[in-house]
Write a structure and sequence with these properties.
The complex is a heterodimer of chains A (423) and B (154). Chain A is globular, with a radius of gyration of 22 Å. Chain A is of the alpha/beta class. In chain A, helix 5 crosses helix 7, helix 14 runs antiparallel to helix 15 and helix 15 runs antiparallel to helix 16. Chain A contains 17 helices and eight strands. Chain B is 44% helix and 12% strand. Chain B has seven helices and four strands. In chain B, helix 2 (24-35) packs antiparallel against helix 3 (40-49). The chains are: A alpha/beta (423), B alpha+beta (154).
């Protein structure tokens, strides 16, 4: 089984230096890409069917194709890596950033070249101190070896790459909020259109791609789109970094063919549930995805299959709900997070999420009122897609609306007994 | 008054950015690295270097969770309170820290040694429950380990 993204990552060891990385074939895709017109690089990525690994699953090649190209395009153009990993339960990009920083930098150079960008940023989450340190070191090496800077490898192409580490806020992971953060503003989302591809950072054409997405680019260029598609067990190309956390025997991240099942992840890779704990459900792709239950264990973990089962692949890192954890306590924790991290820009999210948090807390503490479940359901609709400025609130209600659907008896029991049965 | 070193570091940032205001978070981080937090006076000084009003810069400073606009202790303990750590028992862990230090979230010990704050998912869910002290990540943390960890920070 091929594991292109993680083949160089050694646990508890320093990442490869530039020289070591070159020996494993590193930076070959830069030579290959710079010898082609940028449009050809875009076409290869489009043909690979690589879909964005940050959660939305949009075609990467398609996204790039919206950037104005040629001499008339407004400049400078920007390429930004979104490494602001902060989705609760998600710990996949950390592995790539800490484990193989040169792979990400190689991906940045090729991607930035594909859209003719002069300036690139890696937006790394503030709390990822080790990742920042290792990326800084790797960037220094890349400059010293002329993979970055002026006239890369003797070509006409020049690229400057910098790290921005901000100061901690979940909303910075939202593409347009991230651009505001890079401009030194409050990280509130922007209205779309215009889309960043046309008017992004400082009003210039900009692409924002997730770190795992970018790490795939060198391998696609080196091995071709058909190779990439064949890595997968589904229609979506490539491998995927999957993770499981919660009360399982071996919580971790694994690089596996896109389309492994929920059951394989939990039972084989994560070693099953810890002794004394039984499986009740799982949120499959980070905090803002709907629950799946024991009826969904054979669902394939790819974008379309998880959507068909009523949830989203999201980040591909799942959190397991066990029988000794109260489902209301579980969703209360999630909603509390979203209420705290709401940027406050639009009213439904700013006022609605704290309201939801209070209702859930009172149910959990045994002071819930008749009608609370219906009120929660109403809020889930009001905070759903189309009513808010960005995807934060619709994401926040996904685990809640599905918890009410699958664990309604537990909600009712809290109200009836006026206490949490797990306490 | 900003020190010469702080001014110099902020000037370096300014030389690398497209607009002065886009260095705002970096400049605030520089001041915080030297002083632990950003006082009103320091904020005004930074604002004038960035051609921003103090209010404009404060709007930025107060948006980001880890720009401290109030004094903090010599060391900051950040306990992850997100979902994987919740499932794996951050609550009992937090009780141990609170009783050991005699402070709640948002408070600083009397000897100014520790400030205790919650933090959203640290991306260490395979090591839950996780926490950070200053720049160091720990996990999985048990109640028994807590004393040993805290002893490293004087």
């Amino acid at each position: 089984m091929e594991q292109p993204l993680t083949k160089n990552i050694r646990s508890n060891a320093e990442p490869l230096s530039l020289k070591e990385y070159e020996k494993t074939g590193g930076y070959q895709s830069v030579r290959k890409a710079l010898a082609m017109p940028p449009q050809d690089v875009q076409n290869i990525v489009k043909a690979s069917n690589l879909r964005g690994r940050g959660g939305a699953g949009f075609s990467t090649g398609m996204k790039w194709s919206f950037v104005p190209m040629g001499p008339d395009a407004r400049r400078p153009k920007y390429f930004v890596v979104n490494a602001d990993e902060m989705e609760p339960g998600t710990f996949k990009d950390r592995l790539l950033l800490e484990g193989d920083p040169h792979q990400l930098i190689e991906g940045v150079i090729v991607s930035a070249y594909a859209i003719e960008a002069e300036q690139a940023f890696i937006f790394v989450r503030w709390a990822y101190k080790l990742a920042i340190k290792r990326l800084e070191q790797a960037i220094k090496e890349a400059y010293a070896n002329n993979y970055l800077g002026k006239n890369i490898l003797g070509t006409k192409y020049s690229l400057d790459l910098r790290i921005h580490s901000s100061a901690g806020r979940y909303i910075c992971g939202e593409e347009t909020a991230l651009l505001n953060a890079l401009e030194g503003k409050r990280a509130t989302p922007r209205a779309k259109p215009p889309f960043p591809q046309v008017s992004g950072l400082f009003g210039k054409p900009t692409i924002v791609n997730n770190a795992e997405t970018v790490a795939n680019i060198p391998h696609i260029i080196n091995n071709g789109p058909d190779w990439f598609k064949d890595l997968s067990r589904s229609n979506d190309g490539g491998t995927k970094l999957y993770g499981v956390s919660g009360r399982v025997k071996k919580p971790a991240i694994w690089e596996l063919p896109m389309g492994v099942t929920v059951r394989e992840l939990i039972e084989e890779h994560a070693g099953g549930m810890q002794d004394g704990y039984a499986f009740r459900g799982v949120i499959p792709g980070g905090a803002s995805t709907d629950f799946l239950t024991s009826n969904h264990l054979d669902v394939k973990m790819d974008y379309d299959s998880v959507a068909k089962a009523g949830s989203r692949l999201g980040t591909g890192t799942m959190i397991v709900l066990d029988d000794k954890t109260c489902p209301i306590g579980f969703v209360h924790n999630l909603v509390k997070f979203f209420a705290r991290e709401s940027c406050g820009w639009c009213t439904p999210c700013r006022d609605g999420l704290p309201w939801l948090e209070k209702i859930l807390r009172s149910i959990e503490e045994g002071t819930g009122q008749p009608g609370d479940i219906e009120l929660l359901e109403q809020h889930c609709k009001l905070l759903g897609p189309g009513n808010t400025f960005c995807a934060l609130a619709p994401g926040a209600v996904e685990p809640l609306q599905s918890a009410i659907k699958y664990f309604r008896e537990d909600f009712e029991r809290h109200l009836r007994d006026k206490k949490c049965p797990w306490k | 008054m900003l020190t010469d070193l702080e001014k110099q570091e902020i000037d370096t940032e300014l030389s690398r950015v497209a607009t002065k205001a886009s260095a705002s978070v970096d400049a605030l981080n520089i001041v915080q690295r030297h002083r632990g937090w950003v006082s009103d006076e320091a904020l005004k000084d930074v604002a004038s270097m960035l051609d921003m009003t103090a209010d404009e810069l404060d709007a930025v400073a107060t948006f980001y969770s880890f720009i401290f606009r109030r004094p903090v202790g010599r060391h900051v303990i950040l306990v992850c309170d997100s979902i994987s750590c919740y499932v794996m028992g951050y609550n009992p862990l937090l009780d141990v820290i609170k009783s050991r230090l005699g402070i709640a979230f948002g408070e600083t010990t009397e000897d100014k040694r520790f400030t205790l704050l919650p933090i959203s998912c640290l991306g260490a869910c395979d090591r839950a429950p996780a926490m950070m002290v200053d720049e160091d990540l720990y996990g999985p943390v048990t109640a028994e380990m807590m004393e040993e960890i805290l002893e490293q920070y004087k």
